[in-house]
Amino acid sequence: MTKPTLPVTPVRQTGARVNSGIDWRAVFAFPNPVNEYAARITAGLVVLLAVATLLTGWGWGLVVLAVGFWLRVLFGPRISPFALLSVKVLAPRIGHVKLVAGPPKRFAQGMGAAMTSAAVVLYFTGFQPAAWAVLALLIVAASLESFVGYCLGCAIFGLLQRRGLIPEDICEACNNITLRRS
């Protein structure tokens, strides 16, 4: 009886394996560095939708916000309508570019995704006041980013990195001041 064998990935003459599948890192890539002005514009659009959702009491606005955050955290600015509008249309009209590290911005998007997802769950399980409270906190955080240029998620990312909870190699520019200047 012969032993079953596993399929072999084709090998080029150089000895390197041929990529026969999808490059998942490219699918879930997030830009690094990020144009801070585009990030601030995106935060401003989030503030507009969040305030409109809060004022109208339209629960589905929470879903739209959550989907937008998840699209940005998973795929960067390639799919999210707010990010595309910011990166491709609005930020270029400003004409200024200030590059900042991408990993803290992705972390901040993840915090937004967690907050809006929590608000969605709270809203649709009958805890509307709690959902609106979470949305109000999101409005504060997004307003700080958009209007003041202070990224609360980025600050938390830095704190976690200094405490050793986020490895230094995730964001070298966050640790090395000379990389931030260039």
Give the arrangement of secondary structure elements:
Blueprint: H1 24-27, E1 34-35, H2 36-56, H3 60-75, H4 81-94, E2 99-100, H5 102-124, H6 128-148, H7 152-162, H8 172-175, H9 177-181
Antiparallel strand pairs: 1-2
Notes on the protein architecture:
- This protein is mainly alpha-helical.
- The protein has one domain.
- Helix content is 65%, strand content 2%.
- The protein contains nine helices and two strands.
- The longest helix is centred in the middle third of the chain and has 23 residues.
Entry keywords:
182 residues, globular, mainly alpha, disordered C terminus, two-stranded antiparallel sheet, 9 helices, 65% helix
Along the chain, the helix and strand elements come as: HEHHHEHHHHH
Strands of the biggest beta sheet: in what spatial order?
A: 1-2
SS class:
mainly alpha
Q: From the alpha-carbon coordinates, what is the Rg to the nearest angstrom? A: 20 Å
Determine the mean pLDDT: 84
Poorly predicted runs: 6-12, 177-182
Proportion in β-strands: under 5%
Q: Provide the helix percentage.
A: 55-70%
The outline comes out as globular
| Distance linking N and C termini | 64 Å
Number of helices: 9
The total beta strand count reads: 2
**Whole-number count of domains:** 1
Main pleated-sheet profile: 2 strands, antiparallel
